[in-house]
Inverse folding.
């Protein structure tokens, strides 16, 4: 009996630990800094990218996003998608020597892109994120592009996402966005590559999303899994108890043995 009790207790502990770990894993938060998606593109291509901007403030909206292009690896052109409620501006600067694009000499490159909300209500609200789509190219011959960003809130606070991540080291507190470049001829990422002009933002790109929504669904699924696990555990315990209960005596067991009746005569 003692051995069976220990086995049941061990099963309870393992089941509880597994269910709790599942709940915690489903509720894990997403990254909170500005990122570029996809994170990989092909040298020489025009890449369609989206800068994802989450709001880290509990009270104020994000009203301006400024993405700075890398000066050491200039990019000739940027085509923007429309983001409802926001005004976008592409700033350029002279480059020397000029860039050669499709056989032509280009003397200016993209310096920065600035998105400004038309009003605070149109900004990225607390608990939300917004994606800003852009087509950049041709991408220079380099290993990576580092995009430093400035995020301005409605109260005037400015967060500078400018620290360059170093491979093999911990991520800095305010990391810049990094786009990894692969050589020409390599397989293009699913969402990038190919020259294109973006006329308008896809519905999924231009609309704000909530960081808490995904976590809430995950938490709900985790709680449902916890309840299901505990219910299964209770049923297992009942079945275990029934297997340990002695079988009831039957009528044939309690009846006296027959003496055989009349004589042999």
């Amino acid at each position: 009996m003692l051995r069976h009790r220990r086995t049941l207790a061990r099963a309870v502990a393992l089941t509880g630990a597994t269910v709790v770990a599942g709940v915690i894993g489903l509720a894990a938060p997403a990254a909170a800094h500005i990122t570029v998606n996809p994170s990989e593109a092909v040298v020489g291509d025009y890449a369609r990218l989206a800068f994802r901007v989450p709001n880290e403030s509990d009270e104020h909206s994000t009203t301006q996003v400024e993405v700075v292009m890398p000066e050491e690896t200039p990019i000739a052109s940027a085509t923007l998608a429309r983001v409802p409620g926001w005004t976008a501006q592409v700033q350029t600067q002279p480059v020397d020597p000029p860039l050669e694009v499709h056989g032509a000499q280009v003397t200016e490159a993209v310096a920065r892109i600035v998105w400004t909300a038309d009003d605070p209500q149109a900004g990225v609200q607390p608990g939300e994120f917004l994606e800003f789509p852009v087509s950049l190219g041709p991408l220079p011959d380099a290993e990576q592009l580092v995009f430093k960003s400035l995020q301005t809130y409605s109260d005037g606070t400015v967060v500078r996402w400018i620290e360059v991540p170093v491979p093999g080291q911990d991520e800095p507190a305010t990391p810049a966005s990094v786009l990894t470049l692969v050589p020409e001829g390599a397989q293009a990422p699913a969402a990038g590559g190919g020259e294109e002009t973006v006329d308008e933002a896809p519905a999924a790109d231009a609309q704000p999303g909530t960081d808490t929504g995904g976590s809430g669904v995950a938490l709900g699924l985790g709680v449902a899994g916890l309840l299901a696990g505990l219910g299964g555990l209770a049923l297992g315990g009942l079945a275990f108890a029934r297997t340990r209960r002695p079988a009831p005596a039957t009528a044939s067991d309690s009846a006296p043995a027959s003496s055989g009746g009349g004589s042999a005569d």
Observations:
- The chain is about 25% helix and 35% strand.
- The CA atoms of residues 5 and 240 lie 10 Å apart.
- Confidence is low (pLDDT under 50) at residues 2-30, 191-206, 210-219, 247-265.
